[in-house]
Amino acid sequence: MNNINPVDSYISDEIHEECGVFGIYNFDGKDVASSIYYGLFALQHRGQESCGIAVSDTSGPKGSVRSHKGMGLVNEVFTPESLEDLHGNIGVGHVRYSTAGASNRENTQPLVLNYVKGTLALAHNGNLINAMELKEQLAYTGAIFQTTIDSEVIAYLIARERLQTGSVEEAVKNAMVKLSGAYSLVIMSPRKLIGARDPFGFRPLCIGRRDNTYVLASESSALDAVDAEFIRDVEPGEVVMINEKGIHSDKSMAQPKVAKCIFEYIYFARPDSCLDSVSVYNSRIMAGRILAQTHPVDADLVVGVPDSGNAAAMGYSFESGIQYATAFVKNSYVGRTFIKPKQSMRESSVRIKLNVLKDVVKGKRIIMIDDSIVRGTTSERIVRMLKNAGATEVHVRISSPPFLHPCYFGTDVPTGDQLIAHNNTVEQICEVIGADSLGYLSVDRLSELIGGDKGFCDACFTGNYPIEPPKEDIRGDYEK
Amino acid sequence: MNNINPVDSYISDEIHEECGVFGIYNFDGKDVASSIYYGLFALQHRGQESCGIAVSDTSGPKGSVRSHKGMGLVNEVFTPESLEDLHGNIGVGHVRYSTAGASNRENTQPLVLNYVKGTLALAHNGNLINAMELKEQLAYTGAIFQTTIDSEVIAYLIARERLQTGSVEEAVKNAMVKLSGAYSLVIMSPRKLIGARDPFGFRPLCIGRRDNTYVLASESSALDAVDAEFIRDVEPGEVVMINEKGIHSDKSMAQPKVAKCIFEYIYFARPDSCLDSVSVYNSRIMAGRILAQTHPVDADLVVGVPDSGNAAAMGYSFESGIQYATAFVKNSYVGRTFIKPKQSMRESSVRIKLNVLKDVVKGKRIIMIDDSIVRGTTSERIVRMLKNAGATEVHVRISSPPFLHPCYFGTDVPTGDQLIAHNNTVEQICEVIGADSLGYLSVDRLSELIGGDKGFCDACFTGNYPIEPPKEDIRGDYEK
Amino acid sequence: MNNINPVDSYISDEIHEECGVFGIYNFDGKDVASSIYYGLFALQHRGQESCGIAVSDTSGPKGSVRSHKGMGLVNEVFTPESLEDLHGNIGVGHVRYSTAGASNRENTQPLVLNYVKGTLALAHNGNLINAMELKEQLAYTGAIFQTTIDSEVIAYLIARERLQTGSVEEAVKNAMVKLSGAYSLVIMSPRKLIGARDPFGFRPLCIGRRDNTYVLASESSALDAVDAEFIRDVEPGEVVMINEKGIHSDKSMAQPKVAKCIFEYIYFARPDSCLDSVSVYNSRIMAGRILAQTHPVDADLVVGVPDSGNAAAMGYSFESGIQYATAFVKNSYVGRTFIKPKQSMRESSVRIKLNVLKDVVKGKRIIMIDDSIVRGTTSERIVRMLKNAGATEVHVRISSPPFLHPCYFGTDVPTGDQLIAHNNTVEQICEVIGADSLGYLSVDRLSELIGGDKGFCDACFTGNYPIEPPKEDIRGDYEK
Amino acid sequence: MNNINPVDSYISDEIHEECGVFGIYNFDGKDVASSIYYGLFALQHRGQESCGIAVSDTSGPKGSVRSHKGMGLVNEVFTPESLEDLHGNIGVGHVRYSTAGASNRENTQPLVLNYVKGTLALAHNGNLINAMELKEQLAYTGAIFQTTIDSEVIAYLIARERLQTGSVEEAVKNAMVKLSGAYSLVIMSPRKLIGARDPFGFRPLCIGRRDNTYVLASESSALDAVDAEFIRDVEPGEVVMINEKGIHSDKSMAQPKVAKCIFEYIYFARPDSCLDSVSVYNSRIMAGRILAQTHPVDADLVVGVPDSGNAAAMGYSFESGIQYATAFVKNSYVGRTFIKPKQSMRESSVRIKLNVLKDVVKGKRIIMIDDSIVRGTTSERIVRMLKNAGATEVHVRISSPPFLHPCYFGTDVPTGDQLIAHNNTVEQICEVIGADSLGYLSVDRLSELIGGDKGFCDACFTGNYPIEPPKEDIRGDYEK
């Protein structure tokens, strides 16, 4: 679901990851385009606005890079023919979501560019916070920009550093010194595949293997999709380089402090992914358990708001002993391209997306688990649907703390005044959404979701940014 | 999911409903196209190949019927502009699935036709078994046919009967005398909306109301989608006629024996629908309970194959006390239009659609509930996926009896020799799919799914056809 | 050019032929779809709104007819793949133009239908004047209609007659007894190709041959396009039947009076076609010569309005001795799908289509030849363009008499009050269009265009209809 | 016609111009997108592969540039909606043809880029010969390239020069010092419109005016299309800058030697255009006259191969007194997107495009004028068509000298060995094409086409390149 054709506030009242990346190197010289295609399918939830693939044939003449990109979902942009044309045994892929202003063809990735040493293809997940400064510096030495994405700035830096140093991987490392913010990168030169993760490790990136093939992907579920075995995560600050000799790692850019995005576990990532050695599914079960401990309530059923609330609901049920149930039926045909008719009808677009199983909830006291509340409109409607279907009580439990601060590191959590929690107490929010009680996950217990690890970013809940954010919100300005 | 772009046997190894119908009459003269659009969205699972809407303005000149039809999903065929053009306060809609041979533009519905008394629009769910004879009789009196669907035969009969009688609803009744087989019809004349259901009641049809608006729909969940309240089901053999004076019922065509399709409850219908006063969700819970009673096994977890196996898994859990769990993550982006790349890769198309939550199943003895086994290939792969993810045992339970006979009444259950149960014992099937044990729902207990009612058709399991089927399988022949 | 996306009155100020037909029978069993495709390309000027092809394999099982139809030009509707799928050694094709109301998918041709004796495909050029009566009669015996074209009525009659008689060609003849109006038909049964022309011969139809292949086509230029040799015209009232034994002719339906459309020669047909043994090009040269005799004027140059005015201009030049010149450049990229921007600009859409060669006309006295004047707006603009470019005098000569009456026989010449000549004298028209003088071809001399033959229809100029036209203009009504 | 979907050698046997440019500045603040749209229509013959428009609103915030580009013809890429979105009173447009390798979305123009001083949009007609060197130099200072067109190199140079100088127009001039080759540029900064032409003036560029609006265009016929009056040509080496104060000219880059492409007059440009004060139509008339003087022959008719041969044929007729005639009918529906069916048929694709008027040529001795012979295949077929239609003699006259050398300055005249004249004498060519005689325009008399002016480039005929061409053919290499 994205914001291109919003049904209404129900559907647009969501937080989005901004990208997913995938890279692959087949040592046997076999084409990899279809594997990238499958991998991007598995990462589609990280970006539904545009996608692209670039490949290179390591046995061909230097620079024989082919690419295909477009606006839309993976299965809209690619055809069997376009995949067939993408000959090459090494490649990178990208799925992208973006805020409205920059939703255009120019901004699709992977960026494919020629520079002094040949061709480079770059796929980027994350967000720089010093993109404006870097862009200005580059412009003052004669750079021209044909997109409005910060990834182009990264590409420029790498190209410039390459002039001073002997290899692409060195150039990437040197560029990383100048980059500030979130970036998980997959980069292809005609003969090499490089993966890099910013020192804070905001966004995930992992390594897999299938026979004579190495794979890099934002999430481990994308490895499953290509039958690759999970090897390990790329560590924060690590640069891995895969060439015909194998895989090489450089961790010289690592730093003590890491700040992995905790919301990847709560909502963004697929439950069947494992990020930095932690199962996303288990972290959600744990969130539900903690909610049951901290916000217990007497009720008949625990239900999750599909799909992300289900695991936490299961966890709440485990901990509380209250029966888990399925209360909602989701219409999977109402997709990204759902078009709202001009003739309006009360609430239909919510109903068409989600319906309540009346027989399940009628006469029952319900604990409803959701992953977050942004503006509150969706929660209010879903609570109302449950009550209309005969639920006698609806107790809402949220598997994350309240959103209070914008995110500058690769998601679109908005500025405070668009967030219901910014101006309302929990009691007020409870009233707005019409619930009988409301409980959030406590900030104090977030680390339990990832096994007690403290190296995570919770700035959207606490305002404690791992890197000083820019004074003014530059996220929109960058586009200009 | 349909068979137009099959991923592979996993996805095509499914049984399909052949159609869904929707009708609406707004007494306040307001446009109904967007309501039909929402209604068809809710019925999309009943047919993903083509769809259409026809409307009439009861205040306009007689015969001002407008229609729009096309190949594809509801959100592919309709745009805000095409809906805007469909002015009219009375209308019918249709979604269609078909076997490959007849998948073309000519066969889309609603059929819109002119005859001696003006315009008629007809939407049909079901299958006639005497279509060939009727067609031949009509041809011998000079009829020409421009489609290969039996619905055109129904339209002809109504047009001919209308010559002899005083109203469309009488003509429908008189035509019903000649029709043999399954049909739930929604018919629009310029000033009337008519619903009719064959005397056996093979396919469902229900009536709803929203303020000054009457609605007819294949399933009650489509009423929810337009905020209409469920009034009652159209009874087998009943004809309802809605005009400016209200709703009128004629049950003179009813007969003692009814034969509602039991597989609607097990698989076809949405769980949030209520068909002939029975909740589909509850009937699935019951199927799970019966399986737990008849095929108990010691295990750690009960899991459902999404989406249709989940409710039965819940029922098995309730009855057995064994923990219910979610073992699979479904990729909702792999839709109808998923294109399989020409370059092949082992099993990826299954993996891309369904992934296992390894942390859930690892080291566990699993009871896996699915709704049916057609050829066995899908079951075999899913069992293997669970074992590869670490499940120590996989016990398969099927919430229906084995398929043994073809269906002639509106679904595509194939002839016996394409069905694994036709030539294999349960033990053999168990071996083929690699399960540790296998249990089917017993035919004897099917009636418990619908509260003990005996008026259902179980011919695909038993061969006891409510109407004598044609000597040779005419389903394909008709198309020629 | 058609009326779907009219640029403005310049482009829509044209008269349209309503259809072109093509048929082919290859005795060697080779596929004919690509030949039909080429043939329809050559007939594209007779209809740009929709087109279609139906083929049959005479060696296959009876009734294996395949067809492909769609809205748009031949090169928009067909792809190499769709042609590839059309296996068959016998086939018919159709191009269609229509008035706005009936411009939809249902009305595309060839009509493909099943009836008591199998499959029939029918392509029709012309217009019946008793379609409404026939339709009503058919409806009263239970016929249903799924299109709004009179060709469906013809199909019905043939199907009904076939019940009483022993062959399709007999059924066609019997149906012809009941049909009144204009029709050139190409009909395909699974093993036969039939051509028929109404007794008046309003619309052309000819026979060609290439090796072991017979071809039927609206114009002889379509024979050239498939390298076939012109054999002869199908005569008015003749039915030809081609089967595996060869070609058979039946002229029993012929009648003394024929009424070939004279405007085919003046404007509709291609100049490289030969209709009923008369070269279209020569008839236009003759029209120019007559204009030079009857409306001489002292001038420097004779120019034609492209493309149809050029030949007549050449003829005027031959007769008068005045220099022929090219004064206009036509932009061939402004096609059927030209989209007029919403932001307006004075007259640009004329300019974009036609520009004047200033160096040619500057300071010159010009005789400008065009084929007709409908509303006068186009002529006015072109005269103005010439004067703005420096022409000192512009004398307009029209190679047809003034339009005064509507056509009921297959073109869209409108009713009188939309025709400038209906309410204006020649002097008044001359003033409206800003010409220095204006001369029309005289009705008396029309027969000279076709070698003195008197068997033509000039009803749009004279009101002398060969068949009594319906009392009210039924052309639009039929659509309802 | 371009080479994307070649019908066969007939259609691909053509020489192509590589681009057309258009710019406009409306001082009244009115939107200009629709005017650019009309202008590009008039220039469509200069490039049919892709097109684009970029506009800026001078009253808006700096940098509010909007653009829309795409693959295809002007009427395929733009819709009323996309034009509506292009708000702005200043804008540039581009149509492009390219050789196959670089036919992709990235290479569409105008290039829109951000640099240190804001936004720049650039449209380029021509070809640099030092693009490779410049690109390498830029790469060695850290430039990255996202397209494979030399226009990106120009954009880079301007951006770099802008760092050192005070205005865009100065930067353009400074960049011109480094550029070698052919370029007519239209450049838009947010508040200025700039036109520039290389010092040799290879490609045309002119200035027009309509009320308070200035227009720049490749050809004067594009001024006609927007009702603008021709003011003057941009001179070779001139830079014009239009801002809110009016139009300013800088001719400091001019040099004594100019080298306007003579083939623009013979073939590329529209006959209704006037380039550098010479009417294209008149220059073609003159070419025909010279051919009549230098290659006289006794014959009955002079005919032109449409469309470009017609004017020269007229000139031949004037000079020789032999009757001019139209011998060919061109099918205007066989456009850029003509798809050749896989099933082949002898010669049909020529026939479908061009047919002979048999009545005109039968028994006649014909002089056939064409603009050029590339490989000879087309000429051979057309001569054969004339003879098959009954011409007793066919004398071919070519209104240009034989092609012998490749063009490096903005057209696709190929290398010598693909040119029939490279390895054959005139007598041999005459034999190959089956003509009774053959005569080319003499190189000596080329200057008469443009009034005796010697400042033209005839390198494709003579090998006398105005600038030393690169040692190896870099035209394809650049793409890599």
TrEMBL record, chains A, B, C, D:
[4Fe-4S] cluster binds at C261, C407, C457, C460. Its cofactor is [4Fe-4S] cluster; Mg(2+). CDD domains: GPATase_N, PRTases_typeI. GO terms for molecular function: 4 iron, 4 sulfur cluster binding; amidophosphoribosyltransferase activity; magnesium ion binding. One of its GO terms (biological process) is purine nucleobase biosynthetic process. Pathway: Purine metabolism; IMP biosynthesis via de novo pathway; N(1)-(5-phospho-D-ribosyl)glycinamide from 5-phospho-alpha-D-ribose 1-diphosphate: step 1/2. The active site is at C19 (nucleophile). It comes from the Bacteria. PROSITE patterns: GATASE_TYPE_2 (PS51278). It catalyses: 5-phospho-beta-D-ribosylamine + L-glutamate + diphosphate = 5-phospho-alpha-D-ribose 1-diphosphate + L-glutamine + H2O. Keywords: 4Fe-4S, Glutamine amidotransferase, Glycosyltransferase, Iron, Iron-sulfur, Magnesium, Metal-binding, Purine biosynthesis, Transferase. Binds 1 [4Fe-4S] cluster per subunit. Its EC number is 2.4.2.14. Mg(2+) binds at S308, D370, D371. In the C-terminal section; belongs to the purine/pyrimidine phosphoribosyltransferase family. Catalyzes the formation of phosphoribosylamine from phosphoribosylpyrophosphate (PRPP) and glutamine. HAMAP family: PurF. This is Amidophosphoribosyltransferase. It comes from Anaerocolumna cellulosilytica. The lineage of its organism: Bacteria, Bacillati, Bacillota, Clostridia, Lachnospirales.
